[in-house]
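Long-time lurker. I teach an intro course on protein structure, and each term I like to show students one example going from raw sequence to a predicted 3D structure in token notation. This year I'd like something fresh instead of my usual example. Would anyone be willing to generate the tokens for the chain below so I can use it in lecture? Attribution to the forum is fine with me.
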Amino acid sequence: MARMVKCVKLSKELPGMKWKPFEDELGQRVFDNVSDEGWRMWLEHSKILINEYRLDLMSAKAQSTLREQMEQYFFGEGAALPPEFVAPKAK
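-- Reply from a regular --
Happy to contribute to a lecture. Here you go:
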């Protein structure tokens, strides 16, 4: 049986993530409070941030920025899309 969590993003009881995304306090907090579905939503959102801001994930500054955005996405007021972002048109 899957581990269940009360997802902070989706506000309902859902299957939890299978592993901690980081071996620190934030990773534990995400693991304890974010569902697998919520995490997948974050991954899609993070792709937009990485591409729009052209983040080099090898740099400490980019990693820090992405972690800050993740904390806002799950535990803050929510991470906003970049101001210049235009969603692709549906075909």
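Some talking points for your students: The two ends are 39 Å apart (CA to CA). The chain has a mean pLDDT of 91.
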